[in-house]
């Protein structure tokens, strides 16, 4: 049966067909939907982990127990999971172990565009790279087989255009007859004390050589011979771009990007007059081809930054005089007002950032919807580096500052990010007595990636009720003496809490307690009374516009007099934050 | 071999249901026997930001992304977004746009104004332009939320795909309880 699947849906399907039994992940764009689809296959035990390191360790444990196991994350998640990854490379596996890393060239939804292929080389594990959804499914299955055949974790690299692109996939059946998981003592392989690890490392190096040989004859690496003038080595979505941009070129399409198939590359290079490597981000393949002593061109033509596309590749080859492209008529783009992302109407974060701005706080921020607190008119975020860094960076910053500036430092972090890697940071801050203020924006969900459950939300990925981390108590046991919970829809209470804790020369935590306005059911978000602006009372002072709510629109007066504010009843959730800002009582419940 | 590929771009504002519309389109092309690819960006841009979905079909499709300046049909869910992405089209392309406005932040804050006379400006560049009262016709069909389906109906007339295939795609992709209204909305759009 044929279906149109996204790359992420196809990876989930591939894991199912491969007989995968355990899957663990932390949500992160563009990888999130893999696990959200795996959970639809009842044969697989799938769950969210608090972070990527834990997710990979869950999968490693399942593999050591004899099951085929999957872990998924976005590219920066692999940084968090790097510790177990590098040593799992030495131990190898029992059941097949596959790690999906989803890169985000162009940074559509990420803080950097690191190239995950470097991790495969660095950790010395093979990496497959599919070029469409059909390959996502097939390569995921193959990854499990290679993992067991070569006794290694296998990485599969996706990217935004593959994970969130859809194409046609032929569905298959789930494999049967895999060994039943059971406990097997195998300390020389699984206990990585120095004496054992020294034995394992040479096996890892031999494995890489064997995998390179495998790659030279494997069907996933293939030559498509057309003209002998131009030969292009490429992989993943870039293969699709190359086929479209350079239809006459011969192509060596790599399905395995580490280790490279040296024999096959030499064979291909000998068949073409001019050899090129076209790849997004780093010159990963190019550097290795050059190190083999084979002349080729790569980053001389294409950029190190951002995505490629058929047009960009064509333009680069035309500019270098390698191909000729007929000039086409172009419709000029005209400047129009931009439409950046914004916090939703009724978002509980909005009032907090409004008050942080007014309090002249210096906000060390973190990763989540609330990073949008950076946008005007809130303008209340001053740093954003990586998951969990808000607290530890605030803690470090106060140590460097003169006393009068110390109190301005406020770290802002969401519930899911706090549980991901913020707990260690808060422990450090309490332990070392750093007098910064921390605000945990607890909206009871991992909102930015599409509302996934987390350890404090009370539900599992499967929607079952479960234990719930008590965040205020957790802060107290970490050593924070001053922990207070505030309603972020109450602007005065929020302002008071922020001012008092900023002035306190000790570590303190404020926790906000309103759920994300997109989570319905289970007693979570409830709409309030929809508000409207009394046009007779509105003086056009624009105070309500300072929160940047998408439900409030400024309508200029055509007569040239002052305009007035309007509230869109379709968008308003009745959070009342704008109402509290109106000094003229012009905002009230809709009649 | 016929290497013709039809490139469709769906543009609008995050939250308008663009992804579902592009899924229904893709499903119809697959059912009609074509190779199909589609691509869009999820994540941050969904928070009320500008959204573009690419759908391509033909005998064999390589890139999931429509090459710059190669769009054949622009399917606009919001006027300003329709205007923003005209440069993705080839000259002579078709534009079908919903007559619907959502103000972006700078306009909400009174720092910019919504550009005037956008339909006329679009028509001047792309004579094959259809402005659809998506919301109005959807309301007539029974639910304002079916506006996207009205638009889909309007676009469908410009694609050489059998009636039955569209019905099949809608039946597969639209929840059962909303199907009747959506089939009606589709017919209203197709009748334009």
TrEMBL record, chain A:
Residues holding [4Fe-4S] cluster 2: 549, 572, 575, 578
EC identifiers of the protein: 1.2.7.8
InterPro entries: 4Fe4S_Fe-S-bd, HACL1-like, IorA, Pyrv_Fd/Flavodoxin_OxRdtase_N, THDP-binding, TPP_enzyme_TPP-bd, Transketo_C/PFOR_II
One of the Pfam families matching this protein, by short name: TPP_enzyme_C
GO biological process, any: small molecule metabolic process
Annotated [4Fe-4S] cluster 1 binding sites: 538, 541, 544, 582
Enzyme class: oxidoreductase
Domain 4Fe-4S ferredoxin-type: 529-557, 563-591
UniProt GO molecular function: 4 iron, 4 sulfur cluster binding; indolepyruvate ferredoxin oxidoreductase activity; metal ion binding; thiamine pyrophosphate binding
Gene3D superfamilies reported for this sequence: 3.30.70.20, 3.40.50.920, 3.40.50.970
Domain of life of the organism encoding this protein: Bacteria
Keywords: 4Fe-4S, Electron transport, Iron, Iron-sulfur, Metal-binding, Oxidoreductase, Pyruvate, Transport
Catalytic reactions of this protein: indole-3-pyruvate + 2 oxidized [2Fe-2S]-[ferredoxin] + CoA = (indol-3-yl)acetyl-CoA + 2 reduced [2Fe-2S]-[ferredoxin] + CO2 + H(+)
Cofactor binding comment, as recorded: Binds 2 [4Fe-4S] clusters. In this family the first cluster has a non-standard and varying [4Fe-4S] binding motif CX(2)CX(2)CX(4-5)CP.
Cofactor or coenzyme needed: [4Fe-4S] cluster
Task performed by this protein: Catalyzes the ferredoxin-dependent oxidative decarboxylation of arylpyruvates.
Subunit architecture: Heterodimer of the IorA and IorB subunits.
Protein's UniProt name: Indolepyruvate oxidoreductase subunit IorA
Lineage of source species: Bacteria, Pseudomonadati, Thermodesulfobacteriota, Desulfuromonadia, Geobacterales
Automatic annotation (TrEMBL), chain B:
Domain of life from the UniProt record: Bacteria
Keyword set, alphabetical order: Oxidoreductase, Pyruvate
Keyword Oxidoreductase among UniProt keywords: yes
Residue intervals of the Pyruvate/ketoisovalerate oxidoreductase catalytic domain: 14-190
Pfam family name, one: POR
GO molecular function, one term: oxidoreductase activity, acting on the aldehyde or oxo group of donors
PANTHER family per UniProt: INDOLEPYRUVATE OXIDOREDUCTASE SUBUNIT IORB (PTHR43854)
Identification of the protein by name: Indolepyruvate ferredoxin oxidoreductase beta subunit
UniProt organism field: Trichlorobacter thiogenes
